[in-house]
Design a protein that fits this description.
Blueprint: H1 2-14, H2 23-54, E1 63-66, H3 67-84, E2 88-94, E3 98-101, H4 103-119, E4 126-134, E5 137-144, H5 151-154, H6 178-188, E6 191-197, E7 203-210
Parallel strand pairs: 2-4
Antiparallel strand pairs: 1-3, 4-5, 5-7, 6-7
């Protein structure tokens, strides 16, 4: 309900007659409405996808895909957001891999991991992404320099609606659905996901997908 409240308040503020001569403030409120509307849209999409997964009704549209090219597209789409925070994403390795995946859902898995790395970073976010070919499969690794995750929280990190406490980082916004979606998306692709993290030292997510 937070984005709904924010949009409502911003709309009221824009209608204030005293702001007619203050276009800069009006523009900032409009920008806020736009951002919160997009956030609300993302929430709705995640809720719908999660509901389908829970009911076992989500069917993947599997098709042969160049995973390295898909990964590069997602990484490139994030670069501007990372640069805005003085950070960067380094695609350290991207082996040529052709695999049958649902392009939309697999791209969303990568998107959510990169989005988390950006949100849970106190300093300049630095992320290293690796795609490595394995015997009968591949490994996708996302390593960041974020705030890290306590051991007790790591056990619940993939639970739906669970959000890791962020201490003094008050700018983090989310609904606790991102990593739950990632976990389900990886499972639907017959893969495994693991996490290695230390508080204050960042996190590393590893997705392994192989032939059965």
């Amino acid at each position: 309900r937070t984005p709904i409240s924010t949009i409502s308040l911003a709309c009221e503020a824009v209608q204030d007659p005293d702001l007619k001569n203050d276009p800069e403030t009006v523009s900032s409120f409009i920008s806020m409405i736009d951002q919160e509307n997009k956030r609300l849209g993302k929430l709705v999409e995640n809720v719908l996808q999660t509901a389908l997964i829970d009911k076992g009704k989500l069917k993947l549209n599997l098709e042969q895909c160049e995973i390295n090219q898909l990964l590069k597209q997602v990484v490139d789409s994030f670069q501007i957001r990372y640069k805005d925070k003085g950070g960067e994403i380094v695609l350290e390795k991207a082996d040529a891999i052709s695999w049958k995946v649902d392009k939309i859902h697999f791209a969303n898995v990568i998107f959510n991991l990169l989005d988390n790395s950006l949100k849970y970073s106190e300093e300049k976010p630095h992320v290293i992404v690796r795609l490595e070919k394995l015997n009968h499969g591949f490994l996708l690794e996302v390593k960041d320099n974020g705030i890290g995750i306590k051991k007790e929280d790591q056990k619940r990190i993939f639970e739906k609606l669970y959000r890791v406490p962020t201490g003094d980082i008050h700018s983090v916004k989310g609904f606790g659905l991102g990593l739950s979606y990632v976990f389900s998306g990886v499972q639907l692709h017959k893969g495994d996901i693991s996490l290695k993290s230390s508080l204050g030292k960042g996190s590393t997510f590893k997705i392994t997908i192989k032939h059965e």
